[in-house]
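Renewal narrative, Specific Aim 1. Our central claim is that a sequence can be written position by position from structural information alone. The example that follows is taken directly from our test logs and has not been curated for this report. It begins with the structure tokens describing the chain, in the order in which they were read.
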């Protein structure tokens, strides 16, 4: 079965199909012709004929006779876009409601789907289309989302090892990939509990100075599938050392180290394992069996977890929230690899987005953290790392901890019987659900209004940034384009500049400008924001971050915030009720409003518009149903807050997820190294200066974005 082809013909490579599930994507068309889609059977006869009448915005189905599925001629409305991508899906399968019929479903862009009954069965061999630049994908594979992800970009720097790799022809199976340095207290239990469950164990020693390798060589006598390699270079530690290595384009990074280790894997699939893990054998057996990891050859990525057990040699304490749970099972056959980001390495998200993400909700390992031998410094601690703060706390109190501590369980031992009773905690389940939402989300075209197919970029929530500005301050817009907007472009999040022109009938898109049909003056700001939300929602975005044009945004921190759980969130909650404001003084075109104070009644809480707020699809759609309430206010942020309040979406303290810093604090915050904030409210003529100050704090600003954007 062909998974995807960049062509207008999809041929079924492995015979014929009794079911069909395909998708087509194309960027433009010519109104001078009438493009078609045909489904062909194994005799070369047409089963289905779809003809598009562009100017009439309609589709004719089976207007020609003698078609194999015997579907009656059907006419349906169908609007195609010539300014953004078109997406068509055709599926055909058995109809459970009628034993002698089948059903074909046709989806064209956002039009209502068409359901047609098929009176004669047939086998499918080929699908053809004469649309220009058309891509056809078979969606019947295990990864039905692959079609939408095929152009995802790498998430970091290339991390090809600096010296020769040992890639070999791959065979079915599962390899446990282990990196070790000075793990003599753990290496025996690690290998003995694991080796017979997997196809191979690849153990890479990174300059151990203890007895780790002596013990490993002894284990090879028993476990013939254990292969040992030596990586001669000590990689940089996680954190500042790694950021410096990436920034200087060093040949020695964690990503290069991980990929060198991966190059010695000879099986289709592998699991990232640590040398201080004890395998929970029952659960790992179940994971391997359930997901067929010894034979599977399709793309996959599986989230697996375990438990961290701390010991001083006599007591065993299990912390309930292990921090090692992540996507650990991957397919080398389908291109899994690591890339370098700022402070560490990560699995390339290009691969993660292209693979169907699943999870296994039983712990498969127990990490042993032995305070007799472990060194936080040796492991590469990060000062602000939650795991290291936790370890230091336990280290300082290990002899005095109570078994009633809510975060710790005292275990009698670490036998398999004890380990099999452990469970994944609710916190880790919640984290895994967030990761699944992220990597199973559909990508979004970053500039959907361009007249050609652009590289697709993954956006976990189809997020767009709206910068509310004015046609008279184009210089300010150019400053933003030169600075923080470039950063957002690199991570695939579009920034739109919103201006008004009341002579238009509807919104107009000009590059990254959206011009809405509203007067471009302050007193029409609520209507301007309303029309901007409507336009961007029409473009398919489902989450909007609204900011003013006197802000500097930190693109590198925005996706680290947990805004996905909030309908309405922002940087600062304003809690005044029944107050009088004159924020509009000196800004209105209507002079009568200049000396007329604004009385705000019954508004309990809202997010200040000058410091940014975000709405998700639920909140946006509710706002768009309340145009009169939005446009009847003088202050757009108050109007939004009032509407959210009426819909039960009023902000809570937990939704104050964006930090904000005013310019008079910038110097102090930057000198303290605190630049984790997303939005900086600054004088407009200081945008470049503040942006440059942020970049100069390179130890904290992710080096990958800094490198890509600024060409250091």
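The sequence written for that structure reads:
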């Amino acid at each position: 079965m062909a998974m995807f082809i960049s062509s207008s013909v999809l041929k079924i490579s492995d015979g014929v199909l009794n079911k069909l599930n395909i998708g087509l994507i194309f960027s433009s068309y010519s109104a001078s012709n009438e493009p078609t889609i045909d489904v062909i059977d194994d005799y070369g006869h047409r089963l289905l004929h779809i003809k598009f009448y562009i100017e009439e915005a309609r589709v004719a189905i089976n207007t020609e006779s003698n078609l194999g599925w015997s579907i009656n001629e059907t006419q349906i409305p169908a609007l195609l876009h010539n300014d953004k991508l078109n997406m068509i899906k055709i599926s055909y399968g058995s109809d459970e409601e009628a034993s002698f019929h089948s059903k074909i479903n046709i989806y064209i862009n956002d039009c209502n789907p068409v359901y047609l009954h098929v009176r004669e069965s047939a086998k499918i061999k080929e699908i053809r289309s004469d649309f220009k630049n058309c891509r056809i994908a078979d969606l019947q594979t295990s990864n039905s989302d692959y079609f939408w992800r095929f152009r995802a970009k790498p998430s970091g720097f290339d991390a090809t090892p600096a010296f020769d790799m040992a890639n070999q022809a791959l065979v079915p199976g599962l390899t446990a990939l282990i990196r070790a340095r000075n793990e003599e207290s753990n290496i025996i239990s690690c290998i003995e509990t694991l080796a017979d469950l997997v196809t191979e164990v690849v153990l890479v020693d990174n300059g151990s100075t203890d007895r780790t390798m002596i013990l490993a060589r002894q284990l090879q006598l028993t476990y013939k599938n254990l292969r040992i390699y030596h990586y001669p270079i000590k990689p940089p530690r996680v954190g500042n050392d790694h950021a410096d290595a990436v920034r200087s384009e060093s040949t020695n990074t964690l990503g290069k180290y991980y990929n060198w280790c991966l190059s010695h894997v000879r099986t289709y699939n592998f699991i990232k394992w640590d040398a201080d893990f004890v395998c929970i054998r029952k659960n790992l057996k179940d994971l391997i069996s359930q997901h067929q990891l010894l034979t599977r050859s399709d793309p996959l990525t599986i989230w697996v977890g375990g438990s961290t057990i701390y010991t001083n040699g006599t007591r065993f304490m299990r912390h309930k929230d292990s921090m090692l749970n992540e996507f650990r099972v991957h397919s080398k056959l389908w291109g899994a690899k690591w890339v370098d980001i700022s402070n560490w390495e990560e699995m390339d998200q290009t691969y993660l987005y292209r693979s169907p993400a699943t999870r296994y909700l039983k712990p498969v390992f127990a990490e042993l953290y032995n305070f007799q031998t472990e060194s936080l410094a040796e492991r590469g601690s990060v000062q602000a790392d939650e795991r290291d703060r936790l370890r230091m706390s336990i280290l300082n109190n290990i002899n005095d901890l109570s078994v009633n501590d809510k975060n710790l369980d005292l275990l009698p031992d670490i036998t398999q019987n004890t380990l099999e009773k452990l469970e994944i905690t609710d916190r880790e389940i919640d984290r895994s659900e967030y990761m699944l939402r992220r990597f199973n989300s559909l990508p979004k075209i970053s500039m959907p209004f361009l007249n050609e197919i652009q590289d697709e970029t993954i956006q976990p929530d189809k997020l767009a940034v709206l910068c509310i500005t004015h046609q008279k301050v184009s210089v300010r817009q150019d400053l933003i384009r030169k600075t923080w907007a470039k950063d957002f472009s690199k991570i695939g999040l579009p920034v739109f500049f919103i201006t008004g022109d009341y002579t238009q009938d509807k919104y107009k898109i000009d590059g990254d400008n959206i011009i809405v049909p509203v007067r471009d003056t302050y007193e029409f700001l609520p209507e301007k924001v309303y029309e901007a939300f409507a336009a961007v929602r029409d473009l398919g975005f489902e989450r909007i971050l609204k900011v003013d044009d006197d802000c500097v945004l930190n693109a590198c921190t925005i996706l680290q915030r947990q805004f996905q759980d909030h309908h309405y969130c922002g940087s600062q909650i304003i809690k005044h009720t029944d107050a009088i404001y004159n924020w509009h003084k000196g800004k209105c075109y209507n002079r009568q409003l200049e000396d007329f104070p604004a009385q705000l009644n019954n508004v309990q809480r809202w997010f200040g518009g000058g410091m940014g707020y975000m709405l998700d699809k639920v909140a946006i759609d509710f706002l768009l149903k309340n145009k009169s309430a939005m446009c009847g206010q003088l202050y757009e942020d108050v109007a939004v807050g009032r509407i959210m309040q009426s819909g039960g979406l009023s902000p809570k303290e937990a939704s104050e997820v964006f930090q904000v810093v005013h310019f008079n604090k910038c110097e102090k915050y930057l000198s303290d190294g605190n630049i984790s904030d997303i939005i900086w409210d600054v004088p407009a003529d200081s945008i470049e200066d503040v942006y440059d100050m942020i970049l100069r704090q390179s130890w904290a600003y992710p080096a990958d974005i800094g490198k890509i954007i600024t060409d250091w």
